[in-house]
Amino acid sequence: MYLFVVALHVILCVFLILIIILQPGKGGDIGAAFGGGSSSTVFGPRGPTGLLQRATTVVAVMFMCTSITLALYSNQKMLSDANIDEAIRVLQEEQASKKMTDSEGGTESSDEPSPEGVPEEPTE
Predict the structure, then answer these.
(1) What tens digit of pLDDT does each residue of 60-113 get?
(2) What own/partner pairs with CB < 8 Å and gap ≥ 24 does 51-60 have?
(3) Which of 53, 85, 108, 110 is the most buried (most CB within 10 A)?
């Protein structure tokens, strides 16, 4: 289901871009920006909405629905993987076992860098 929503989201994104690019501009030509004769139609009443405007609205609403759905999927995944107490316990056990092996081994590490500039691995 997740892959379907992601694929649908990408397809809707491409459709939305194409639909917006296909729409004609509302201002006419560049003269309308500087007070040309056709600038009075820019702020006038709008006619009936065209097919591209309706398609833009439908695709935009579907795009937002898939965005919300993907956000919910992401939130559920994060919450299902969020076992903080278990993660803290595992980290504490790893640190405790590391301290025990370091104290038992008695290895000393030198502060001098290796000849190649790569730090040496501790010997066990």
Answers:
(1) 999 999 999 999 988 877 666 667 777 788 888 888 888 888 777 655 555 555
(2) 52/19, 52/22, 52/23, 53/23, 55/19, 56/16, 56/19, 56/20, 56/23, 59/12, 59/15, 59/16, 59/19, 60/16
(3) 53
